[in-house]
Structures are given as C-alpha cells and as structure tokens.
Amino acid sequence: MRIALLSNPSSGRGRHAAADDVARRILTGAGHEVLHVRGSSYEQARDAGRALLGDGPHRNVEALVVVGGDGMVHLGVDIVATTGVPLGIVATGTGNDIARHFGLPSRDAEASARLINQALSGKGAITAVDAIYASRPDGTLLAPQRRWSLAVVSAGVDAAVNARANTLSWPAGEGRYVRAFTAELATLAPYGYRVTTDEGTWEGPALLLAVANTRYVGGGMDLAPQADPTDGLLEVVRLDPCGRLSVLALLRRVFAGTHVGRPGVHLERSRSLTIEPWPDDGAGGWLRDPPHPYADGERLASLPLHLEAVPQAVGLLLPA
What we know:
It is built from eight helices and 18 strands.
C-alpha cells in the first residue's frame, strides 16, 4: 500500500526523534510505499498531511500513520475524519493516552509499525470509532484545523493543568501533569458554566468539566472508565467545588478510575452538548471564567462550543 507517514521530531521533547525512521524502515521492508513528511509545527504538519492525502476518489495514499504523542493523533484525526482513510499510531509522546485506551504500544516504534503492517495486511483490524466534532452553538464552523478530536475535551481545571504542563520542561513523561496539577491547587477556585446536554441545561459552578470519548487523560488518569468510542455517546464528567484536600484525594482515585460515584462527581452520557461560560450575576462575581479548552492535549477554540459524537468517523489500525 501507499502510506503517508507524518511525524514531529520534537514530540516527547525530542526524546524519540528517531522513531519515524524506525517506522519507515519497517513499513518499507514490509513492501509498502511510504511517503514521509516531518512537520516542524502543527500547522505545517497538518498542511503536509492533507496534501499527501489528496482529495476525493483519487486519493494519493491508502493510509495515514502519525508518529508522536496525543497531539499528533489529534492532528491525524483532523486530517482523516470522515474520509475513509485509516489512521495508524506510533505513540512516542509524553502521555500517550489514546494509545493506552486502544491497547497500542507506547514508545516502541518497531512494535507499533509491525502492528500497523498486520492491520493493513488483514492480520489485525481496521476499527471504525467515533470522533468528537466541535463547532459554535449556532452551527458556525470553526477554523479548518482542530474541528475534530478523538479522546477528551477539557474545559475546567483539567484544561488549566494541560496548559501549564505544556510549559514545563521537567519532569519527563507523565510527571509533568502531576506537577502542573499541584501548581494549579494554589489558585483553585470554581468556574461558571452553562452546559446543555440531551437531558437538558445545567448552570452553576464546577472545578472540572471534561467531555470524554476515550478513557484516559493526563498521562494515565482513568477519567472516564466506561467511555466507549463506538457507542455514539460522550461522557460528560463534572466535579463540584470542593477543598484542596478533597481534590487531592480524588486525584488518587482518578488514576485508579474509582472516582465515579463519589460525592461531587457527576457523570452524564450525551450524544452532543453545548458548553458556555455562565456569568452568574447574582453571585457577586465569585465564579471565574472557564479556562481555554483543550482537546487531546491541544489548544482548541474558545468557549462557547458545541461538541458532538460522530459515529464511525475514523478508522483506526488496531490489533486483531
């Protein structure tokens, strides 16, 4: 097959820069034609990937393989969603939460490439999964990039942690998220939201607000243990305001996935939802404006947003 291989050598702080060469060597050795592009920025990689993919019935490639972290998977989904071109993942990033959900190798380019070859040759699987589509509540389209995501959209303290973690150079790996979370505790205060789901509208304060299509976030936190990216539904996770000690206790539970059902933790399933800032004029302005949302660890458009689960939007190259 003709495969587009898209990589970002800076993923994982450059620790896995040679992974794309390993993946290319194995896929080429298996008989595939590999068109390899390295992108030095998100925008450059996206444009290059779309150019390789082509358009319409005369596509240039039969599969897209991304090398990097969850951000590169996010980029790959943005390129292939609804096109019918399957997506392979060589996970070399910091969190690799998407690879974790689907049982894919992490930081093992050789194993990842062999698995992709097996899926393409019929010894694995091409599995159609849902993706999250973002737009404005009135239906206005967002910019061409970053409309699609695969894992989790964060819009509370989870988004603030993501933004802070992206600025840290140490520790390596998942420890950056823990350090960022600890730092956010110093200024912990609730945000104001208006959230409209299939069940109705809720207005009020919350610390965490996340919309999950897959289970994990922040390098292994089992945020939505029952998330199923093939059921056409999104998991809406919300945390009521509480003290710092309660948040730390819940953090330990989130890593184990045992926080669901605890006091103050709300979970709702919805096909679509709208998230808006809530002004809360009657509360004396004590609620903060929600932080800038993130999707799959990448900066998304600002609120308000309408999010929708689109069934079978992406075909993933997975184990049998």
